[in-house]
Amino acid sequence: MHIDIVSCVPNLLESPFAHSIMKRAIDKKILSLELHNLRDYATNKHKNVDDYPFGGGAGMVMMVEPLANCIEYLKSKHEYDEIIFFTPDGITLKQNIANEFSLKKNLLLLCGHYKGIDQRIRDIYVTKEISIGDYVLSGGELAAAVFVDAIVRLIPNVLSDETSALSDSFQDQLLAPPVYTRPAEYKGLKVPEVLLSGNHAAIEKWRHEQSLLRTKERRPDLLQ
């Protein structure tokens, strides 16, 4: 998979992809990822990428020209499956959406900043708009990092045990069950006996029951 990310503060994205699972995906050449500084595509000597909104009001809006210049340049290099903009009014990122995007080959991610981006960029170029939750961030960089992590970990050979992703919360519309490791007892709290039994059928039955119970208690909406 190849992913291009456009940001006016690309340094914010260096750390999330320089460690752990994302770094291993890049090192194994399963993922190629490039960060692009939007200011490199600005049209004036001051490298401005934002301006005051028409109609007045607080905040600044990211301008059409730098974004269009960058997108057009990148489109000349890659044929994208989707051009994605992260915005609070987009569709909410859920596991089924992550599953879908993990099958794509080329993605272009646009990170907004300030008050947002000129609507004409959304009208002309953007093919999908995604939100990671009902709250507002300072920019789309953290949302992009969340999105990339959610989809890349699903690609075969990224995780050392591919079945791990299949047992995550939400994959079967249930929350994951409780998990335990050594020691078998800590401060009087013992690991459930069934997990120590070696009876795999009984263990799977227990895990499914716990998933149902946890989902019913914490996210009953998923059971609908």
Textual characterization of the structure:
With 224 residues, the protein is α/β, with parallel strands linked by helices. The protein has 2 domains: 2-152, SPOUT methyltransferase, trefoil knot domain (Alpha/beta knot), CATH 3.40.1280; 167-223, Orthogonal Bundle (Trp Operon Repressor, Chain A). Helices cover 31% and strands 18% of the residues. The chain contains 7 helices and 9 strands. It has helices at 20-27, 64-77, 95-101, 119-124, 141-152, 163-166, 200-218, and strands at 2-7, 32-37, 50-51, 61-62, 82-92, 106-110, 128-131, 185-186, 189-190. The strands form 3 sheets. Strands 2-1-6-5-7 form a 5-stranded parallel β-sheet. Strands 3-4 form a two-stranded antiparallel ribbon. The two termini are 34 Å apart. The model has no long low-confidence stretch (mean pLDDT 95).
